[in-house]
Amino acid sequence: KAGVTQTPRYLIKTRGQQVTLSCSPISGHRSVSWYQQTPGQGLQFLFEYFSETQRNKGNFPGRFSGRQFSNSRSEMNVSTLELGDSALYLCASSSYPGSPAGNEQFFGPGTRLTVL
Amino acid sequence: DAKTTQPPSMDCAEGRAANLPCNHSTISGNEYVYWYRQIHSQGPQYIIHGLKNNETNEMASLIITEDRKSSTLILPHATLRDTAVYYCIVRALRMDSSYKLIFGSGTRLLVRP
């Protein structure tokens, strides 16, 4: 079974631009979450989508947005990029968000965004 | 979700067991303990999770104390490839809950040759 894929793997943008990152979850997984990882703040939750609906959102400004398509693929968008948005952006998928038996979340390799 | 406390770093010799502790003294009855690891510049990798019973899989064992206030991840025969940052996460599971992991600083494990 193919893992979580993210494109592109590396991206360089300049301040003020916008960027769209893509995530394809594991086949059959309907929950997709996004995380930002920086050296200073560590791994921080951005938002989670399930069945095309945002179910939860972290503490990030409105410049960060996302969406999920009917095939569970997800995109996240960052508008008006700032230097501090330079980070590794990770996508993760799971089969069902609230399974009482517990289930794991599988992470992709990430997209490394550099803002100049 | 409950907060977790882990030592910032540990080391062990290759071939020996690595025992990584985690405190989660405010854990609630419906919260699971999850362990993930992150090898440099890669996405986190799921290791194991448990509720109250000890768990074992091909990667590791998870020992949860009877009061559930702490747990230990055991890598029985550590290899150099186990060098990574290990995260202990407590997560409530409800049928209507979204999947949100709160990562702390983790434990940086160095396996020495």
| Strand residue percentage of chain A | over 45%
User: Major sheet of chain B: size, sense and barrel closure?
Assistant: 5 strands, mixed
Q: Nearest-angstrom radius of gyration of chain B? A: 14 Å
Number of H- or I-type helical stretches of chain A: 0
Structure classification of chain A = mainly beta
> Mean pLDDT score of chain A, rounded?
92
Biggest sheet of chain B: strands side by side, in what order? 1-9-8-3-4
Residue runs with pLDDT of under 50 for 5 or more positions of chain B: none
Round the Cα radius of gyration of chain A to an integer and report it: 14 Å
| Total DSSP helices of chain B | 0
The major β-sheet of chain A equals: 7 strands, mixed
Low-confidence stretches of chain A: none
Helix content of chain A: under 10%
- Report how far the terminal alpha carbons of chain A are from each other: 37 Å
Give the assembly state of these chains. heterodimer
**What sort of overall outline of chain A do the alpha carbons produce when their principal axes are compared?**
globular
How would you classify the helix and strand content of chain B by structural class? mainly beta
Largest interface comes to: A-B, 29 and 26 residues
